[in-house]
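hey so i finally got around to running the thing on that chain from the lab meeting. sorry it took forever, my laptop kept dying and i had to restart like 3 times. anyway pasting the input first so we r on the same page abt which one it is
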Amino acid sequence: MRREEGSMVRKLTIALIIALVTVSGVTALDATITAVNGKVELRERAGGPWVAAQAGVVVPVGATISTSFNAGATVQVGESQLEVKALTRMRIEELITENGVDRSEIDLPVGRVSANVRGSSGNRAEFRVTSPIATASVRGTSFDFDGANLSVSEGIVVLANRFNESVQVAQGEQSSAAGDGAPQKPAEAAENSGTVTISVGPSGERPVVRESTTGGLTINWRIVN
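ok and heres what got predicted. didnt touch it at all, straight out
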């Protein structure tokens, strides 16, 4: 009799949990390794063993993916695709669909990832990659992020430092966050990476190239003696 009562209690508990999940509209979002190149390892939980990652393996929340030299992996998260570059270690912190939003959060202690973020079945996608010094948050876009430097190829990404100071980085723009300073504005990043070449003197004559720097802008002076 007690065994039957215990079994009934367990069934009621499971039913209640299912009911609560259904009412709250929260479901799990799948993450699956779809491609592996070189030495890629997977650890399903903190302190657990490292095993060779293989295509088709489902990656649970709390799992860590580690890539070696000249290695990489592709992870499908719902309709979003994540490219894990070489010498990267990343951990999956959250994978849920709630109230029409696909939420994914990745912890990136070291390395670089590229993401193509898309919502599934009409849902809106919220994708967050967090490093020790910066966080990239997106809602449907494509970007490349190494924990400090961000490059956006489609859409808009919000880059924030650990003090939650942030900038918006749009398609074709770049930004970076390092130390305790505010993330770089895209215009500043473009200026710092710019190079201008100026030619002075009659055409056809061999110039002498001199280089000077103004802030982060490098200017090559091509002067004919």
